[in-house]
User: Fold this.
Amino acid sequence: MCGIVGYIGHREAYPIILKGLKRLEYRGYDSAGIALYDGADIKLSKTKGKVLDLEARLEKEISTKGTLGIGHTRWATHGVPNDVNSHPHYSNSGDLVIIHNGIIENYESLKKELIKRGYTFKSDTDTEVLINLIEDVKKNENTKLGKAVQIALNQVIGAYAIAVFDKNKPNEIVVARLGSPLAIGIGEDEFFIASDASPFIEYTKNAIYLEDEEMAIIRRDKGVKIRKIKDDSLVAPYIQELQLNLEQIEKGGYEHFMLKEIYEQPSAILDTFRGRLLINEAIIKMAGVEDNMKRFLNADRIIIVACGTSWHAGLVAEYIFEDLARIPVEVEYASEFRYRNPIITENDVVIAISQSGETADTLAAIKLAKSKGAFVFGVCNVVGSSIARETHAGAYTHAGPEIGVASTKAFTTQITVLTLIALRLARAKGTISSSDYRHNLIELELIPDKVKKALESDEYVKTIAAIYKDVHNFLYLGRGYNFPVALEGALKLKEISYIHAEGYPAAEMKHGPIALIDENMPIVVIATKKGHYEKVVSNIQEIKSRKGKIIGIVTEGDIQVKELADHVIEVPETIESLSPLLTTIPLQLLSYHIALMLGKNVDQPRNLAKAVTVE
Ligand code: G6P
Assistant:
């Protein structure tokens, strides 16, 4: 996820683009850059760091003159965040310049072809490949920029929102989208381009939101012409009048970042397996795993280290790895592990899970494991973060920036990555039959749509939140794969509503928590059809006979729990190992609504930090 901005019109482009980038920094903030056309040439400045760093550098480096320009704030996907990998990127001739939000999956094969044809590359990015592909098409086919962009995009697999201009045609910008957002602001003989409308809201309320597989040629003198990328057909522009204010736009129209991030999960999970889960070939492709396959296959055990929500994802992974790949797993709080004098050998594989990639305890645990000779693999969200750099190899979650302190999409995308790894290892070890393997892949591919379905419970969850918002204690119970979900559900509630909540394995209830149960205690029980269902139903009966209030998270069409529980929230059916990706959704929503009803600061709960960089 990155932020893109562009301007073509009669005003100075630089201040508009700079301010726009600052507003889009919530979309990514590891590097930034701007390219301006000054009337004769393209002037470009970019840097690792925040937009403020860019501002300091750019104003020293280049002239800020010009009424045409594009800017970018980056959330790295290919290539570490550094000056060279920052956008915009030039084509080899220096005539074309591009900004891009998204991932070009087949960039390696396109790059090889271009290298054969004499192109050279300065950066490690997929974006530089795309701009040279456009240049190559433009030259070979002798076409205009718009047509070249169209032909090039038809060769591309992946997701993108792009803006490109040609210094020889400084009257137009070409934009296109597939899978990443792109809005065009329409002014009086001036046009704005941005990932959302926040950069141009004070200049115009009229906007066109490009649909997937559409491109637009925006000309200073002639306006906007939209075409379908695939078949070149013209699309009548639909101009909307924006009703949102600035803050609402940054939050995508949601009241809070947390809610936005909860709702982003279908697309975040899709982004996590995009290009990795190749369903037709029944292949899982993850370079970090392939390159180190021997280390994984020879591992005596896997030790997972993490903190907070990431630790809960690690617990889910323990079930997945042991179940599918038959590798023994231990899950450790990084803070305990690092001080325990743990036994680590060269045959251990340590997986460190961290959204931010900066958690001090996790980082220290990694260093310790490395010093003992273990192979350390990172699962991080923030590209180029300390943990991503400190580990021997890794896989990013590609969830995009998570701003809400209470982690939501990071959790489900971590589970997605870990599932992919476990399945890949299971296949390599032969611990899964090819039909089960295929079945797992198919089910995983269906998850984004099923998460969407699970999100439909939102209104009903809100009514449950209204009933229980004033209680002082909550209990969350789950078994097997859904025990970690119970822990995560309880953590979410604690974090943002400050209500005391505990997660327990359902059967452990008898060894203590059952003493707490009376008619005032709400108990969330995850009771999906696959996985110890009958046992959980017995636990529910035990709660009922002690008058506890039961909120069941059940599989669509459930009958038994419905009869016993006070409320049931349905989630779609899936295989047991993937059920945490669905059962966690209503629990996120429940904590969100309760906190909101109690008037708490949902995105920035008291005493908590998004990244804990101290031990
Ligand atoms: C903090 C955050 C949690 C997060 C934990 C681990 O406590 O508030 O949301 O789960 O750190 O962070 P990490 O970035 O390593 O996943």
